[in-house]
Amino acid sequence: MISRSKTLIIAAAAVLSVVGFKSALAAPQDVTNQIKVTPTQIKSDGREWTIEVSGVTAHEGDWATFRAENVSLIPGGKADLKYNNDKIGEVIVDKQFNKGQNLNFETVPRDDEDAKPAADIWQGKIIFNKNIEKYTNFRTTISNNNANYFIYSDHDVVVETKIIGTTTLKGNDVTVKKPNLLVVNKTQVARGSVFLNTNDGSSVFGPTINQSKNEPVKAGTKLKITMSNDSPIRFDDKNYPVGTNLRLGRMRESISASTPVNKYGVYFAGGPSMDVKIISTSDTEIVIEVTKDMPAMDGIYRNWISSIKVVDGSKIANGKINDIKYTAELIAPNGNTIDKSTFSQSGEISGSNVETYARIKPVKPVKPVEPVKPKDPENKPAVVEPAEPAKEDPKKEDAPKEIKAPNTGFEKVANVLAWAVPALGVVGALTAVVFRKKLLGSKVKF
User: Which domains does the chain have, with CATH numbers?
Assistant: First the structure.
């Protein structure tokens, strides 16, 4: 008979076994053989491609892989995988076997298998998240539209484009021509580069300086970029504030007769960069300054110096944003203009959310509203202007004026007495004369 303690031990072990079994079942695993990864489209020299992903079930953390040869990379190396507008995972660039155009930026030739003329050769990985567990059956697509750069070599090369998943899809072969050799007779500004990634919202603008070995750029030289008001983009300094130190890299197009090659004919056109600093920025203008003297060598120099924002989505069509207009001016340390030019160009726009940008409408400038003037009322009373006082002759002396006191009651009595007293005196004198004559006539004796 099994004791109670042994029973408890056996039960606990059974529970742990079940939990362990479930944990093992739930552990992330490679489901490449259980999921269908079917390439359905490759076009535009491998720039655009689509893959369909379908399956019965998957769990959080499960993954599937595919291989892409000479087709464009996913912008930023990552994109959302959605089903019924629900994010069920991510598609990432898991490994790179050949870094395409990056090979041309190197300076020391190498002869390994990853140094052959091609574009990017890479492995994609689809990683599912927990939302996939809602669905017992799913079917969705991965679409990509990005620049596709092929390695430059000293001869024409035919390159094959293909994607290998559950099935293999071959695209059209691409013929990569031997590039023209660079000859720069004069240091000048050149067409820049614009790129937007609609998957993660990133965006960049980069100017270009073509340097001649006869006119190497000196420290203190400034490059001013002014965006036109009717351009569909504006500068944004969120990732490139004033004071940022950058390097304009020597572009792979800097291929001259002296550029070294490997045994496959691949050019190694790298070289020293141009050190610059951002000294001012606004939404329509950026100024950068060279901080070190450049060596005397022909070369094309470029790097990203600003983020950008779209202000007019109507200029977006066929994976590009068009009518980007700006002026570039290269200014010597003494203030003289080395070169100045105006450009109108397009920019690359990629990812799966292009329509979000295409719906952006330009903001029309609002004219200031003039204040409404009140109308003059009818039967408006006439305004009588005060008469201007007569001007006196400044040479004429003023005569003294008589000052009159106020005419009070006392003064009135005084005025009456002033004429009454003399009159009474005259009457009194006449009366005395008459009275004397009468007395003499009557002969009265005393």
Answer: 31-178 (2.60.40.1280), 180-364 (2.60.40)
